[in-house]
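U., I forgot to send this yesterday:
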Amino acid sequence: MSAIKSIKYRLIFWFLSVSSVIFTGLGIFLYYELREIVIGSVDRHIETEIQLLASWLREEVEHGHLEMEVVELSKAAVGEYAVSLSGHYYQIVSSSGKVIARSPSLSIANAYLPLEDNLSQTPRIKTITGPEKGLLRLMSQSFKVPNDTITIQAADTLQEHYQLLNSFRNTILIVFPLTFILSGIVILIMTDLSLRTLKILSKKMGRITAKNLNERLEQQNVDSELMPLVDSFNTMLGRLEESFNRQGLFLSDASHELRIPTAVIKTSCDVTLGRERAAKEYEDTLRTIAGMANRITDIINRILEVSRLEGSTFLLKLSDVDLMDIMQDVVRLIEPFALSRGITIKLNGSSVNINADRERLIEVFTNILDNAVKYNKPNGRVDIEVSKWDGEAIVEVADTGMGIPDNEKERIFDRFYRLDASRNMTAGSGLGLSIVQAIVKAHGGRIEVESEVNKGSCFIVYLPMGS
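Result:
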């Protein structure tokens, strides 16, 4: 089972499978091509012999010496035709079926070539079993002569040629398997060498833990095919490192935020329980503890809220809402607080209808407007503009507050992050803008910030229009 899941063994299997088909097909093709060449050469040789005999017969017929010369022909043959059952034969047959001449290789052994039933002036060729019990290639062709039709037959043995073919076949059966095995060994070595980089990368990946997420895989000497894998892994490590850092920062900030009210509760308890006190002092202590407990509860609730908003369990209750109507409700909620600080809120724009969760959007703009008032200058101003453009609803909240430094704009939406300048101005958990961003993203929108230190900030919320 592990071999089936191995890339190396799958590559070897497919290579050997394809190679076996190719080698087998090539071997069969070469064998039959060679067979055609060999048999063809035999056929051409036989045809040449018949044509020579036919030419000689025509010449003798013209001189009237056919019968005498035919008898002499049977005695005058030399070479392979003079050796008994040599495998090289010829035979001349009259129209009546009488053999009027044959090669000494037949006459010495008193053997004959098989006669054709259907005589034809077109050469007819076939493979037969000869007098020596070996395979012969036999060609027969009829020729017209005065007062008769004679048939010339010639045959050559195929024994030597088949030995050549068998030798070639045996060579193929030996060479091709050896080539097949050697190719398998070569591809095994090449696959090991090619996958060695993967093994090295795997070892390096295995050494990376939460303690050394800052390490990256080296891209030098990496094959181009593996470069996307290395890039993706390094990108993943970067994201994991950022996530771990954010998680560590989150735990640090959460601990810091919870440490203060916890310390106040512990100190109040220790001091109060240090000696007997009046009922009024106990009551004050309990009020302090209750206030800190409420703050802890608020922080925990906001942490859970952010986690839920960023998780998959968060669902929006969508309906058709008017952003201008929502902003009017938000202004009514924040206006008493703004008046207490001498802040003027001005709302401009027109009705813009979108499909959204009304309560969540009220939470979004309440947080933004509350910050605009909280971090504003005394007797400052907050301007709100509701508009739409290019399929998006836009809400701009601009204040005349202390502004945000450029190097902190990207972090104001991080959980528990608070501007250094704001820590001593107001109490807060640093989770409000995290919640704002999560709700806006859940609606398919985005939030941007434009700010200048000591001049103010402008939060711009973009929300998609339509259903």
